Amino acid sequence: MRRYDRLKEILRLDPERDHHAIYQLIATREFPWDVTRALELALFRTYAVPSIGALLARTAELTERSQKRYDDTALLLDAVVEHGFDFVDGRTAIRRINQMHRAYSISNDDMRYVLCTFVVTPKRWLDAYGWRRLTDHELRAVAAYYRTLGHHLGIRDMPRTYADFEAYMDSYEAAHYAYDPAARSVADATLDLMASWYPRPLAPLARRGSIAVMDDALLHAFRLPVPGRTARRLAHGALRLRGRAVRLLPPRRAPHFARQNPQIRSYPAGYRPSQLGTFPQGCPVPRAAHPGEAGARAADPAPGTGE
Q1: What are the boundaries of each domain within the chain?
Q2: How does pLDDT run across 41-79, given as a tens digit for each residue?
Q3: What is the rounded distance in angstroms from the CA atom of residue 99 to the CA atom of residue 162?
Q4: At CA 21, angle to CA 140 and CA 4, rounded to 5?
Q5: pLDDT of 95-109, one tens digit each?
Q6: Considering 123, 142, 196, 297, which has the largest number of Cβ atoms within 10 A of its Cβ?
Q7: Residues 6+ apart with CB under 8 A from 152
């Protein structure tokens, strides 16, 4: 195969009907490393919304069990990518996500925003660092894939096109990004986790490198130090150089799923999707509402069942 043969295969598929097949090719053959890094950044962005970050801090999953929470999130999303929406493991993963979400009072707006980050952040990452950019054809499929996932998660009033996802994400961040000390603790725990994946002498460099690829709005929301021009130039340059090098390589013949990533460490003996995540008991845990929205949130129905 030549480097762009898989893109030709993608362009022969219908972006609405074949959205899962196209997204799987994008995430597991064309850009597996980039999509993983971009989704990590996407989730990190969501912590800067205090209603999301503070709730995650109250659960203590990301601050006290960071590696397991990272692994469970990656593996549950990965199961849907690998198996789709109509087969047992994919449906089980969606059911597990919904069971966990129902234990907390999460607004539809926050759920929709998180979904938007999954669509927009990888596209922007690939624009900046990928060995090629996504085509409009692929973006239509990505939007359709996440609309389908959002439907199974019970999210209402989802954006339809990539441009709609992007506009919603940007406007939501502009309206809701704010400093919250509990959310900052989640951000710090996540940065520490990412640094722990590297040899100890490189851990501080890895943390600084992660911060260097973040935009100023995100850094200001967490009150993280804004990197200097040299640090940013080095981080961006290294990632762009990697993208150019990947372009020269032959295309990947076998899919690479997130479960194969070395960062996944919690299940050396294997796992089943039904065993992933947390199993909270009791009444739903309330979230801190944005000002003036408490009444609207009380009316929000529970997320979908995944059926």
Answers
A1: 5-262
A2: 999 999 999 999 999 999 999 999 999 999 999 999 999
A3: 28
A4: 80
A5: 999 999 999 999 999
A6: 142
A7: 85, 94, 98, 304, 306
Structure tokens given for 99: 């069971």
CA-closest candidate to residue 132, choices 248, 288, 18 = 248
The tokens for 120 are 């927009």
Q: What's the confidence (pLDDT) of residue 286?
A: 54
Share of the chain above pLDDT 90, in %: 90
In angstroms, the first-to-last Cα distance of the chain is 39
Neighbouring C-alpha atoms within 13 Å toward the C-beta of 285: 15
Residue with the two structure tokens 């994400």: 169
Bridge partner residues of 285 (DSSP): 104
Which pTM does this prediction carry?
0.90
Neighbours of 215 (CB within 10 A): 11
| Of 233, 260, 1, 5, residue with least CA distance to 132 | 5
Instruction: Report residue 56 CA to chain centroid gap.
Output: 15
